[in-house]
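Obj: model holo form, ligand = fructose -6-phosphate.
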Amino acid sequence: MHDFIKPYSVALDLRTGILKSYKKKVVVKLDDLREFFYDKDAVERTLCRASNPIIYEYYDNFQPDVKGHLNFGVTTINPGKIGSEYYMTRGHYHEEQCASEIYVGLKGEGIVMMQTKEGLSAHSSICRGKVVYIPSFWAHRTINTSKEKLSFLYVYASDAGHDYETIRQKGFAKIVVEKQGLPKIIDNPIFIE
Ligand code: F6R
Ligand code: MN
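Output (holo structure tokens):
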């Protein structure tokens, strides 16, 4: 059977939020996220300074993408902002829309922003010891609002797939920016309904 795999375990350092072994590491830099931050001038200004910062990374233990398996791993988002918008993940819907996901906060503090194609928005804070349930049909993006690395464990169906295109074209209805030194959720000025 092509999807037969043997049981295995990996060490997760709960203090540092570091997953000791993984099958794939993905590094996402600012130029990969050009279309995702709302302040395009701030993106270009940062890139023009010959700086292409790492925004986030994930350390993935993927399985065969067939029904029944679970992918899991750890995402770490660096602290920082582009203009006033905090560093964040691209965000996506699952292609297989009936695929939910669990995040477990390990380190740092942030916000999981969620929305549906019907126009609902929701958010949850994420921090060490907090479990966030992302139901089927909800797009999700994680934003680091703290001054340290935000790190969380994720678990989701390995045949979920990722639809980044809808978010690339339309964005999230709500974004998280710094106002007077504090995170604030505002309407995304460039959101397309
Ligand atoms: C998987 C999932 C997380 C994210 C990761 C990076 O479905 O939600 O593992 O993939 O936090 O975010 P994206 O995938 O939006 O670049
Ligand atoms: Mn997901």
